[in-house]
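Need tokens for this chain, all 302 residues.
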Amino acid sequence: MVKKQYKFVANQCYVHFFNECNYWIVPLILIIKLNHMKFCPNCGTKLELESKFCPACGVPIASVHPPFAEPSIPSPQIPRQQDPIYQQTREAAHSFSEAISGKTNLILRVINILSRPAQEWYVVAKEQPNTMRLIGGYAFVLALIPAISGFIKYGILGVSFMGFANQSIAAGIQTGLVQLFSAIIGVCLLALVIDILAPSFDSEKNFGRSLQLAVYASTPKWIAGILLLLSVKMTPLIFLVSLYAIYLLATGIPVLKKTPKDKVAGYVAVTIVVMIAISILLALILTVFLGLFFFGNVGFRY
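Here are the structure tokens for all 302 residues:
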């Protein structure tokens, strides 16, 4: 009797469990299956998951993501910042290409700064200083004049000095590089000296203005570099022409650096003394350094 009651209770539990499973699991399976099925929103026809049009009524079917698939959110693209040195180099190269192609006012600036500096400095003062344009679009272009002239004179034409004749491509390259590097490095150092000395002479401390002053005041020295083609004896004449740069410096300092008139002479004098010492040291370093690469390739003949 007890066994029969036990079997009856067990059977009732099994039936109850089976009914509960059918009550919960089967609908859940149907829901999941239905969620993965696709029907036409117009006529209710069952569709394939990849269907784009209803085969019964032809209505376009919008693509639907699976119900449990979360849409992927693309991560924000952070623009890659270019290296500042690369950007500056690129800007200088672009300024150089524009200058040699005649797209800038380089020639007009050279003519005006040499012929009417007092008026041209006020034009310069209205311009926003741009370091890369000043170096790449003006200084580098004009510095090529003494550099190329030195290369042609020492590397192709040859130079005679105290009974010795010197003519070699290596000597020409060395001379050209010394002229080019000393011009570019020298003008940057001149701007730095001008800017450092500015507070001592009640002047405006602004490196951009100092660079404008240094670059444009160096114009006659670079233009005179073409005289290197004539003869080594023209060096004193080049020096005299370069003295005009001091006049340009004196006329430009009051305009660009806001220097009081009674302190202009002292400002110019101290700047020139410091730059003479720096220029001699710079030329010596460049000559020795570049000479290490070209030593032995320089040809001498009696």
